[in-house]
Specification:
Layout lengths: L8 H16 L3 E2 L5 E7 L5 H14 L3 E7 L2 H13 L6 E5 L3 H6 L7 H7 L15 E2 L2 E2 L3 E5 L1 E6 L21 H10 L1 E2 L15 E7 L12 H7 L19 H16 L5 H7 L1 H6 L3 E7 L3 H5 L7 E4 L10 E10 L6 H11 L2 H9 L4 E2 L2 H13 L5 H8 L4 E3 L6 H16 L5 H14 L3
Parallel strand pairs: 2-3, 2-4, 10-11, 13-15
Antiparallel strand pairs: 1-2, 4-13, 5-6, 7-13, 7-14, 8-11, 8-12, 9-10
Helix pairs in contact: 1-3, 2-13, 7-8, 13-14, 16-17
Length: 446
């Protein structure tokens, strides 16, 4: 849901553009004034939930039909960009805070604030802060649809019996706190020695205690960003729509250096090795004990078909407290749609309890409306799934931070990711690489 695109997907997206034109074109007007709106999303796990919303919406609005098209994340954004450029974008699409600034800059997304004002939409019903994410200069570009936080996920069979209490882990960039102790204890070499044993062989590791995510753009949502913020790091002078990044902050360099020493000690796989395997594959193979994941993956880890038995725990508490990124999606209306009023009706429905209660009952994501989140939590509990690590973090005072929202998102992401990867590969020191990246990034705003 929050993976970053690789450059190679661009050519594939262009090749697919023709075949997608049928489902990506603007809304159609049928006989008798009937309208079909094209709606795009990327998560196949959510398609059924939003089809239920589409069916309920059509029942209440018989002249409007919603046609849903689902495309995997790796192709979604490039396909959308291609369709926008050709003037055949979907009427409504699921939007992400990292991507929508480019649509605003290009005037490709509709300001819905006049509709919100006219229909008196209650913005206080949403999880705190989400309603402000898609606003710039008094214009609103979406209503909140869901939210996610991050937590530890671990293989219950791979943690030692004398492991530290997972509900109260601590972390710092110097010795890693009790979290690093957990990671070391859970790392096992080919001879059965764990990472705390003097006989541990870091060159022949059977189970890694921790699996970092390195293809994490400029935000580090799946790991380093959460730790860095818990160390006192802040991304921007203000968020959203800041213009001065702070990637040269020593607190971020400390965090990246801590990550690198996990690799040096053998507690985490080398980046070049992990990059070919992927965290999910390593976890599923029983070769990784702990990693960080988002609440959108709950059902993947807890499903009956999961290859290992997993459980969740809150992120460790750092020097500045326990911090998790909280992110929210919205639904965007194409500025060029021929049926703005009908598209607004659909977006308003998606942002209402009528739809979000349906989504919550399916326990796939946590809806943006607080009462619908309660329904999702109850649905998980009815299935015997303990997911309170995610919801407790969301409710904790000062426990969440929003991912940076600015112009030049793609360029920022690439520059910072390249810098961090160069450090992990041993090609540069953290302070120098991050300062160079920060200068490059801030130069984009001059």
């Amino acid at each position: 849901m929050h993976n970053r695109l690789r450059a190679g997907t661009a050519l594939l997206a262009i090749a697919l553009a023709a075949s997608l034109s049928a489902c990506g074109k603007n809304s159609d007007t049928g006989t008798g004034g009937n309208v079909t709106l094209n709606y795009w999303l990327w998560d196949d796990n959510q398609t059924a939930s939003y089809q239920a919303c589409a069916d309920a919406f059509h029942k209440a609005n018989p002249t409007i039909t919603i046609k849903i098209s689902q495309t995997a994340w790796a192709q979604y954004w490039q396909n959308l960009t291609t369709q926008l450029a050709s003037g055949s974008a979907p009427d409504v699409w699921t939007d992400h805070a990292s991507y929508y600034p480019q649509f605003v800059t290009s005037n490709q997304i509709l300001d819905i604030q006049p509709y919100v004002d006219k229909d008196k939409v209650d913005l206080s019903q949403y999880q705190a802060g989400l309603a402000d994410l898609f606003v710039k200069d008094g214009k609103r570009y979406g209503l909140p649809k869901d939210w996610d936080t991050m937590a530890l996920v671990y293989n219950t069979a791979l943690l030692p019996k004398d492991a530290p209490d997972l509900t109260s882990l601590t972390w710092n960039p110097n010795d890693g706190g009790t979290f690093q102790k957990l990671v070391a204890m859970s790392t096992v070499d080919a001879n059965g020695h764990n990472g705390l044993d003097p006989a541990f062989d870091k060159n022949h590791v059977k189970v890694y205690g921790f699996l970092p995510e390195w293809a994490d753009g400029s935000q580090g949502q799946n790991g380093w960003g959460d730790f860095a913020v818990s160390n006192g790091f802040t991304f921007l002078d203000k968020n959203p729509w800041g213009t001065q990044y702070k990637y040269d902050d020593p607190k971020l360099a400390q965090t990246i250096n801590w990550y690198k020493q996990l690799i040096d000690k053998g507690y985490a796989p080398k980046f070049d090795k992990q990059s070919t395997l992927g965290r999910d594959a390593v976890m599923d193979a029983g070769q990784g004990a702990v990693t960080i994941t988002g609440s959108w993956t709950i059902n993947s880890y807890l499903s009956a078909t999961a290859k290992q038995k997993y459980a969740f725990a809150p992120l460790p508490t750092g020097p500045s407290g326990r911090k998790t990124a909280i992110n929210g999606l919205s639904d965007a209306i194409y500025a060029g749609t021929k049926h703005k009023d009908e598209a607004w009706k659909w977006v308003k429905f998606l942002g209402s309890s009528d739809c979000q209660d349906l989504v919550g009952a399916n326990a796939v994501v946590f809806p943006a409306i607080k009462t619908a989140t309660d329904k999702a939590l109850a649905a998980h509990q009815s299935k015997g799934q303990d997911v309170h690590a995610f919801t407790d973090e969301a409710k904790a005072a000062g426990g969440t931070f929003f991912l940076p929202i600015t112009d030049h998102g793609n360029e920022v992401s690439q520059a910072v990711q390249d810098a961090i990867q160069s450090v992990i590969l041993g090609q540069a020191d953290a302070a120098s690489a991050l300062k160079k990246a920060n200068d490059t990034v801030n130069g984009l705003f001059k």
